[in-house]
Amino acid sequence: MQLLPRIYFIAVFCVMCLAPIATLAQSLGTAGTVSGVVNDPNGAAIPNSNVVISNAVTGYSRTGTTDSEGGFRFNNVPPNVYILTTSAGGFNPATQNLTVRGSVPIILNVALTIAGATQTVNVIDQESNSVLENVPTSHTDVDQTLINRLPLNSPGSGLSQVITLSAPGVVADSNGLFHPLGDHAQTSYSVDNQPISDQQSKAFSTQLPPNTVQSLEIITGATPAEYGDKTSLVVNAITKSGLNQTKPSGNFNTSYGSFNTVSTDGALSYGNAKTGNFVAVTYERSNRFLDPPEFRVLHDEGNSINLFDRIDYSPTEKDTLHLNLFYARNSFQIPNQYDQNDIGQDQRQRVQSFDIAPGYVHIFSPQTVLTVNPYFRVDQVKYLPSADAFADQPISFSQSRRLADLGLRADLSYVKGIHNAKFGVQIQHHALNEGFDFAVTDPAFNDPQSESFLPGLLPFDLTRGGSYFNFFGRANVNQQAVYAQDTITYKNLTVNAGLRFDNYRGLSRGKSLQPRLGASYLFKQTGTILRASYTRNFETPYNENLVFSNSAGSNGFADGSFGNVNTTPLKPGNRNQVNFGFQQSITKYVLIDVDYFNKNTTNAYDFNTLFNTPVTFPISWSKSKIDGVSARVNLTPYKNFSAFFVAGHTRARFFPPESGGFFFNSDLPTGAFRIDHDQTFQQTTQVQYQFNQFKKIAPYVNFTWRYDSGLVSGAVTDFAAALSFTADQQAQIGLFCGNLVATPFSPITACADSNRGALRVKIPADGTANDDTNPPRIAPRSIFDLSAGTDNLFGGEKTKVTLRLTASNLTNKVALYNFLSTFSGTHFIAPRSFQGQIGITF
Fold this sequence. Notes:
The protein is mainly beta. The chain has 7 helices and 44 strands. The strands form 8 sheets. The chain has a 22-stranded antiparallel β-barrel. Strands 8-13-14-11-12 form a 5-stranded mixed sheet. The protein has a 4-stranded antiparallel sheet with strand order 3-2-5-6, with no helix packed on it. The longest helix has 16 residues, at 3-18. The chain is globular, with a radius of gyration of 27 Å. The two termini are 42 Å apart.
């Protein structure tokens, strides 16, 4: 396939588009700009003043020096609240609060008083309010400072780990997947204002490595009107930039750890006031690349390569252009079970992504800013079977899938008085190409003498003279959206009012008008914010294998020859959501945020699989009801300590009938059921101690505790069902009867002992299982990580050597993410592992 020439053509096309569309509509992501002039009491400029912008909760801090005219400028500032501190020799320092919320520049006039004189300007609010964000939407802000300290040990999915560890209500799953607030994959990313709603698991696609990200705004509450598609979780990512890096800066890190895991990354930033470049390269390899179906790792080698380049150019004070270029590849073996490994199964997969995303920002006035962001992204997935088809049991399978996204987002932002408004349009075109083939290789899989025999599979049974089944399909999906929103701030009240309209034209059609309304109120005396919101959201089907899920006819499955199959086309869904929450500060050191959510959805999406192959495809259920609570507590640096705690409780109830896509399952649920991303409770606690008494070498210790109460695991309805499993499956769940424990080669076939159960799955007592009120679950687990290091091993001034040692899963807990999941099968969490990292920053 001649893919690269097409990419170059699209890149040229996108750049050419910038000029004619520059009259449409707002900025790079939602990053802002803070600039100003520092003067003395007589209005004369103060050069060489020191200006610091910082946020104690996220750890974000940037330092600048005023030029000969007293001017300063901070670019690419993430949305948040900040304290700006200005100081100069012979003058009193001045501090003031800032709120960056959008792309319209903030321009300040900072007046310093002469040292010894009474300071009367730039006084910040009371300390307990300096960490509060008075906005109606619950969200978590993550800066590079925290990202660098998190225990990230999953090659190719570091960004997913950052989100899982730092955002409340996000449940960890295998291979970089996570469930956001009770949904499967309802997550949208906005990378420098480029929308990406495709799944970012390393088995589905690729993702930005953490070292390219400056900050993340993870929205877990009600989403503003500018965000559509997948809105259970919105991740607004702002990448690093080289603007104003007059002294080149960068880093190089390399690490080695358990399972022969090697990671090497480097980054370089350089530029001036008009041009800038940030480039980053990451390479990772491991003998445990995916989470395997056995605690012992078998056939699991893989590697990941990421190249990212952001180019900025500002020809005038009012115009800025940027270009993001991204290439990534994941190449890995598919982990084996014991029996698969014994017969030499050698399945592999490769995922490649290309992304080209230019952007243009024009400042019409101090109140009005235009941003235009065209983009082109391609994901290619190839799944390769073993060279010997009969080494793949019970089915030999291959796949080639391609998803190409071409789109444009344009925003016009306007700030005036109490209003902060944004008007925008988003246009997307998705080109889907899907192909796969399979054949039965196990004579017992579809035995004609069996009661479960499927006549439609017989022509594709290689053990009985059959041949391969071949499928190929392609389709185009077009989406258009327009939106308007206004954040109104009046004294202590903030109101966010928005309206969005989506038009979806794919294999099915739909449109929706979506009001979004939220309000928050700050009680200054107590440091309390109360908030409430209502949103209506329009949900579109997942694009991965969407053509297959909607296929019918001669190469489809609508005739039921492959079993009990529902083939209703997937339709867009609609969701009504309400949120209630509060934020409470306790002095300037502790910030508490709690949010209750309730989501009711028609055509609620999930995934299914084709037999036991890796072909996963979207389906939908009639409706879902998801509610729960998320919580976050931050301790800003206090006496060398800092910490955060995030937690979530979710009830995810789905209701039949299955309303769209194929469903290969004869045991359809008849009533409400808890889906496999329902989890009662999960939490992450991280505590950091910084040895400030050794300021030059800056040593630190981090401790992280992750607790998960366990996802729903519907396969183990009772002990009798577990007795029907294979020996290996029984060993995976740790099935036991008295003192007898199942092994991969010795099953338990009967048990009369009352002391029976499973170590890694909670099996309901006989006769008590209920799909809604008492479903089987994965057993609870606590995982502990410990790391220690230094940011400046030799106390250097300009060039610093970093060192870090990390131990993950300290207690070597043997636990599962899931078991016989209809979406992803069985996966173990990583056992105890160690990693050493050394690096250099300059």
